[in-house]
Amino acid sequence: MPLRRWIVALTVFTTVAMTAGCGDGGKSAADPVEVGVLVITMFDPETEPWLQRESLPITVDVPTAYKPVHCNADGLCVAETGQGKSNAAATMMALLDSPKLDFTKAHFLTVGTAGAPPDQVTLGSATWARWVVDFDLGNHLVPAEAPSLPHGYRPVESYNTAAYRLNDKLVDTAFGLTEHATLADSPEAAAERALFGQPDRKPSVTKCDTMTGDDWFSGKELSDTARHIMGVRTNGQGSYCTTQMEDNATAAVLDRHGYLDRYLTLRTVSNFDQPYPGQTVLDHLEQQSAGFRLSLDNGYTLGRTVVDYLLKNPYQPAR
């Protein structure tokens, strides 16, 4: 090909390529996605309501993250981290360090299921945490062999990740937006509540605190241990009401990136953390709780309300 024709062809090709690489607002495919709210889920059933009910056409593959991130042009992104603290920490670190995502004005919202003590909340209820506390860290001893230690627990040290106090103003805002919401319920959940002495209790929205542990426990004694650890780690300020497996890991990564004050965790009650009177702990663990589907529906409903608000009120970095 003569040199002049080759140059013309190259110019045309380059122009077409540049045009194809520019989408909405003239942004190229190499530009990072500007995240307004990152919704954080842990496993497929928690993620599905967002993928099914939202239009999230932008897929962002981040190396070492658990799964691709799904986003839209409004700034809503949904990321599934995987279950447990290790998966959550690995995925969050990958996302926050990725050049493909811009978190300059982002808020972060965990929307997930949780267990709960029946004397605090009930199936289908939604909780906004003020404190996120780690169940695992410290010495866990056989109580009978360490009678001087309540519940056989000794905190040892903080590890810098044992307890996080979230942004009170942000938590209060989320609670205020959702406290009067109508929550899904079912006859099956009502029947299960009755076994726990809650025949007339209905799902509600509350502010209380969440316990993170890789150990999925069952039983009143362990529930009481969680309550005790919550008090120890928060100097009596925290009120244990949900148990889950990821939030301290998520909070730790956000804290190290300077984003902790933008973080909310919404945990909806899928099951109780102990069996009903007369039920064995093994039967309790094998039971499919009637609260599971409710917790997924209510998590999405309340989460979406807060997402709407946060997208309209993005984080404003200090100048």
Topology:
Layout: H1 3-20, E1 33-34, E2 37-41, H2 44-53, E3 58-60, E4 69-71, E5 76-80, H3 85-96, E6 101-102, E7 107-116, E8 126-134, E9 139-140, E10 153-154, E11 163-165, H4 168-178, H5 187-195, E12 205-212, H6 220-233, E13 240-244, H7 247-256, E14 263-272, H8 281-286, H9 291-312
Task: Walk me through the structure.
Pfam families: NUP (PF06516). Residues 1-20 form the signal peptide. GO terms for molecular function: catalytic activity. InterPro entries: Nucleoside_phosphorylase_sf, Pur_nuclsid_perm. This is Lipoprotein. The chain is an alpha/beta fold. It has one domain (32-312): Rossmann fold. Helix content is 35%, strand content 22%. It contains 9 helices and 14 strands. It has helices at residues 3-20, 44-53, 85-96, 168-178, 187-195, 220-233, 247-256, 281-286, 291-312; strands at residues 33-34, 37-41, 58-60, 69-71, 76-80, 101-102, 107-116, 126-134, 139-140, 153-154, 163-165, 205-212, 240-244, 263-272. The strands form 3 sheets. Strands 2, 3, 4, 5, 7, 8, 11, 12, 13 and 14 form a 10-stranded mixed β-sheet that branches. A two-stranded parallel ribbon has the order 1-6. Strands 9-10 form a two-stranded antiparallel sheet. Strand 12, helix 6 and strand 13 (240-244) form a beta-alpha-beta unit. Helix 3 (85-96) packs parallel to helix 7. The chain is globular and about 60 Å long. The termini are far apart. The model is unreliable at 1-26 (pLDDT under 50).
